[in-house]
Amino acid sequence: MADGQKKAKVISFINFKGGVGKTSNTVNIAGELARNGNRVLVIDMDPQANSSVWLMGRSMFTELYQRGDDSQQQTVQHLFLARGDRNKFHIGRAIIKNVCSRGKIVLRNLDLLPADYNMIDLEQHFADDLATLRLRYVLHKEKIINNYNYVLIDCAPSFSKLTRSALLASDFYIIPAIPDFLSRFGINILTIKVNETVAEFNTNLKLLGITFNLGNSVATLNQEAIDSITSNLDELKINGMVDNDARIFKPWIPHLIGITKASDLNFPLVVTNLNKEKGLYADLTKDILSHKNLHRDTK
Question: DSSP for 141-204?
Answer without folding.
Answer: HTTGGGG-SEEEEE--SS--HHHHHHHHT-SEEEEEE-SSHHHHHHHHHHHHHHHHHHHHHT--
